[in-house]
Amino acid sequence: MTPEIPSEAESRKRLVALMTRHQRQIFAYIYTLVPDRHDAEDLLQETSVVVCEKFEEFAPGTDFVAWACQIAWWRIRYSRQKFARSKVVFDDEVLAAVAHTAGEMARELDERHEALAVCLQKLAPRDRELVLTRYEPGSGVAEAARRSGRSLDAAYKALNRLRKLLHDCVTDRLAHAGALP
């Protein structure tokens, strides 16, 4: 019996679903290997284009993230000349070691991210808003304090308390899920 070949529309839907689900992981992988966030974002876009072009080569049932990260790896290597002007440039051996470690950590980081999302939802709305505003791109403690109606000193104290609460909550969730050694 011959396996059924998916239609182009089904293949496109599968690609979009996989990219949507795993884009954050692929970006995290790239960002661990590239010294600048904007360069990492550009490389994510380049990687996404190549993933789309080569998607028919992806074997369903295999690890999409590993496959996409391999494409990212080659895009990064290709783009290294662009980074050669930056102050810190790693040789290929160091880059390969970091890439290997990033790949191994991707699942754990994803589990931590999911645990953090659950823990954030457990916070009081005012506290959650303070934390989210603090870590919003371009924001800081002063902006978070202003939006929450707290003094700067009170915002720092609240953030320290909330970071500890979130750390303990994430650690507890991961320990109960068996994700921590």
Task: Tell me what you see in this structure.
By secondary structure, this protein is mostly helical. The protein is 77% helix and 0% strand. It has two domains: 1-89, Rna Polymerase Sigma Factor, Chain: A (Orthogonal Bundle), CATH 1.10.1740.10; 107-181, Arc Repressor Mutant, subunit A (Orthogonal Bundle), CATH 1.10.10. It is elongated, with a radius of gyration of 20 Å. It starts with 7 loop residues before the first helix and ends with a helix.
Offer a concise description of the structure:
The protein has helices at about 10-35, 35-55, 65-85, 90-120, 125-135, 140-150, 150-175.
> Please, how many helices?
7
Give the name of the CATH superfamily of the largest domain: RNA polymerase sigma factor, region 2, helix turn helix motif
SS-based class: mainly alpha
The poorly predicted ranges are none
The main sheet comes to: none
CATH class of the largest domain: Mainly Alpha
The structural domain count equals 2
H/E element order:
HHHHHHH
* Radius of gyration of CA atoms, rounded to a whole number: 20 Å
CATH architecture of the largest domain: Orthogonal Bundle
Principal-axes shape call: elongated
Give the N-terminus to C-terminus distance in angstroms. 45 Å
